[in-house]
Write a structure and sequence with these properties.
302 residues, mainly beta, 3 helices, 15% helix, disordered N terminus
Length: 302
């Protein structure tokens, strides 16, 4: 009888203890939910391409998304893909929205340069005040290129990170690339108390056709975003002229609620203005950048 009572007592104590743990876990879960309402439900990465052979064998690809409605088509229906293992895909990513996924792996480009999956905007070809092109959307960063550099994030020579939008445009004279980048926004990984964040910088030219330490500088960080969290991106590039003053070429941005504007040097040399969005550069590890609710504005009056 005593053994039965002891057994019953042990069972009762075990049930009480389990109930307390369950209540504690429930309370902790609620705290996590309240603190992380914007976090994704699905932590899995986008699937690999089902067409690896053609993606790796035939060089640069330009294609349209064939999996249904393209949620990023407002920028361009054509996707410029120079990433070997992955194609552009779409996923709900554990949310009520559909996201366009731009995923890269270091060392897997199809052209010997940096891997990229991007869309090009319309091109402003008339250098006239008021003409512009813009790209707006909501972005999440699941991964950005990491492990390629030991220098600090704020150094131009730090090659970690991935660009998610960039302003481009050809020019007269000035040398450099025939299709040069002018102003690029890059996400560089940084951990704070074990939590993954990304510092957002603006990499901008100091001279037309500038590249590397002699022709570009790194401005920022502009803002810091947490992994897998929404942040708004609005970038506009074009031309403006005040009465009695010279024409200016600008790249204006609002990233995660922070406004940052850049006056491009030697506007007199500019021939055009355009944008590219998606994911570009991955010198270490993998990058995975998601875009949704994408819109684009454009004016190119004579």
């Amino acid at each position: 009888m005593k053994k039965q009572l002891n057994l019953m007592t042990l069972k009762t104590l075990a049930i009480v203890a389990l109930s307390a743990v369950a209540i504690s876990c429930s309370n902790n879960d609620q705290e996590v939910l309240e603190d992380d309402m914007n976090a994704i439900q699905d932590e899995s990465s986008a699937p690999e391409s089902n067409n690896l052979t053609s993606a790796c064998s035939f060089g640069n690809q330009k294609y349209t998304y064939s999996g249904g409605f393209d949620v990023n088509k407002n920028v361009n229906t054509e996707i410029d893909d120079r990433s070997c293992p992955y194609n552009y895909v779409q996923t709900t990513n554990g949310t009520t929205y559909t996201w366009g996924v731009y995923r890269l792996r270091a060392g897997t480009s199809t052209d010997g340069l940096q891997p990229r999956i991007e869309r090009a905007s319309k091109v402003v070809t008339n250098k006239k005040s008021g003409n512009y092109v813009s790209v707006n959307g909501v972005v999440r960063i699941k991964k950005a290129g990491d492990g390629a550099s030991t220098s600090t994030n704020g150094d131009l020579g730090n090659s970690n990170g991935t660009y998610f939008i960039q302003a481009k445009g050809t020019h007269n004279g000035g040398g450099g690339s025939p299709d040069p980048a002018i102003c690029l926004f890059v996400a560089k990984p940084i951990k704070v108390n074990g939590v993954q964040y990304y510092d957002i910088y603006r990499e901008q030219i100091t001279v037309r056709g500038g590249s590397g330490a002699g022709g570009r500088t790194l401005f920022g960080p502009i803002t810091r975003v947490r992994q897998n969290r929404d942040f708004n991106v609005n970038v506009t590039t074009g031309f403006h002229q005040n009465p009695g003053q010279a024409l200016t070429h600008y790249v204006n941005a609002n990233i995660n609620g922070v406004t940052t504007n850049f006056q491009v040097p030697r506007a007199d040399l500019a021939k055009q203005a355009k944008l590219r969005m998606g994911a570009y550069r991955c010198k270490g590890g993998e990058a995975e950048i998601l875009w949704r609710s994408v819109t684009s504005g454009f004016r190119n009056n004579q």
